[in-house]
Specification:
Oligomer: single chain
Radius of gyration: 20 Å
Shape: globular
CATH topology: Farnesyl Diphosphate Synthase
Number of domains: 1
Subcellular location: Membrane
CATH architecture: Orthogonal Bundle
InterPro entries: UbiA_prenyltransferase, UbiA_sf, UBIAD1
Keywords: Membrane, Menaquinone biosynthesis, Transferase, Transmembrane, Transmembrane helix
Distance between the termini: 44 Å
Strand content: under 5%
Number of strands: 0
Order of helices and strands: HHHHHHHHHHHHHHH
Pfam family, one: UbiA
Helix content: over 70%
GO molecular function: prenyltransferase activity
Largest sheet: none
Number of helices: 15
């Protein structure tokens, strides 16, 4: 969901949120789990891993010190990013009849401590990135990690708040969930370097996340409009956002297949099958959604579960292609 900011986010409005649903008591452990959204770990696992598997040339590459640290960096960056998002969205979550439980978690931890937790965790990821850069002799690893932090602040914090600025919403998502974790994982097992095929598949994976930024905005259209959050679905209509998402997937499929071909060989282009399947599935949904109202209703319904499975498939099939190549080359 694309929400407004909370007090304390750089440049955020200072007014307190309006009264919302009554808070319920939470243990500190439960509140921390909610803030980090650990339950989505399995969904994002292959987003964090695929770059390692396509770049590895030997199984031992996957459990090197650099690879283990890269997984730590990507994982903590992901969950810590949810902490910042929940912090910045606190005023709207407090008013929401659906997401009030997230505001409860922020209140249980405390607004200031929630923000401090985010920065502490990001400091850990930067420290780990420094270690990897020393191991690899390439400081671009730290630069990419810092780019991820900057994109998170631009996405969530005022006066930028890119999540409410039309196409900048999917652009920033593509950096945070596509480009940065993909490059960190790739660098870690490829001596801090990336070649032509790596760039091609990385751009394709970035387009997957760019597409998702349009697609995810559709189901939240009415709530975002009410809060003045100008996502692509609010500005241009839910069905147009769906069409944009599908259009972005087409070059993503081509680039992923081409990148795998260049990196691993022609047979490994099958790694694009997940993205191709997701494209076909979402194109079918686009045809079913005859207007904006139908688009919102469709993507808010039971189809979300199947759609989520296709989202995972786009990355795990890429990972599978890399795994097969590593095992056969061993």
């Amino acid at each position: 969901m694309s929400h407004a900011t909370a007090p304390g986010v750089p440049g955020a409005a200072g007014s307190a949120p309006a009264a919302g649903p009554a808070s319920r008591e939470l243990s500190l452990t439960a509140a921390l789990r909610m803030l980090h959204r650990f339950e989505v770990g399995p969904i994002y696992l292959f987003v964090l891993l695929w770059g390692m598997f396509v770049a590895a040339r030997h199984p031992s590459d996957l459990w090197s010190a650099a690879a283990i640290l890269a997984l730590f960096i990507n994982g903590l960056s992901l969950f810590s990013g949810f902490v910042l998002n929940n912090y910045s969205d606190y005023p709207i979550d407090r008013r929401s009849p659906i997401k009030g439980y997230v505001a409860d978690a922020v209140e249980r931890v405390g607004l200031r401590r929630t923000l401090a937790l985010y920065w502490f965790e990001q400091a850990l990821t930067v420290a780990a990135a420094v270690v990897v850069s020393i191991l690899l002799g390439n400081w671009m690893f730290v630069v990419v990690k810092l780019a991820g932090i900057v994109s998170g602040i631009l996405y969530n914090g005022e006066p930028f708040r890119m999540k409410r600025r039309g196409i900048w919403n999917p652009v920033m998502l593509s950096i945070r969930f596509g480009f940065v974790p993909g490059m960190i994982a790739y660098f870690a097992v490829h001596e801090g370097k990336i070649d032509g095929g790596g760039w091609v598949i990385l751009i394709g994976a970035t387009l997957l996340s760019f597409s998702r930024g349009f697609w995810n905005a559709v189901s939240d259209t009415e709530e975002d409009r009410a809060e003045g959050i100008n996502t692509p679905a609010v500005l241009h209509g839910p069905r147009t956002a769906m069409a944009s998402a599908v259009a972005a997937l087409v070059p993503a499929c081509v680039l992923i297949a081409a990148g795998l071909w260049m990196l691993l060989g022609p047979w490994y282009a099958f790694g694009a099958a997940g993205a191709v399947g997701a494209t076909a599935f979402r194109y079918r949904l686009l045809r079913e959604a005859r207007d904006d109202k139908a688009a919102v209703a469709l993507l808010s319904g039971p189809v979300r579960r199947t759609d989520g499975q296709w989202s995972k498939a786009t990355y795990w099939v890429i990972t599978l292609a890399g795994l097969v190549h590593v095992l056969l080359a061993a």
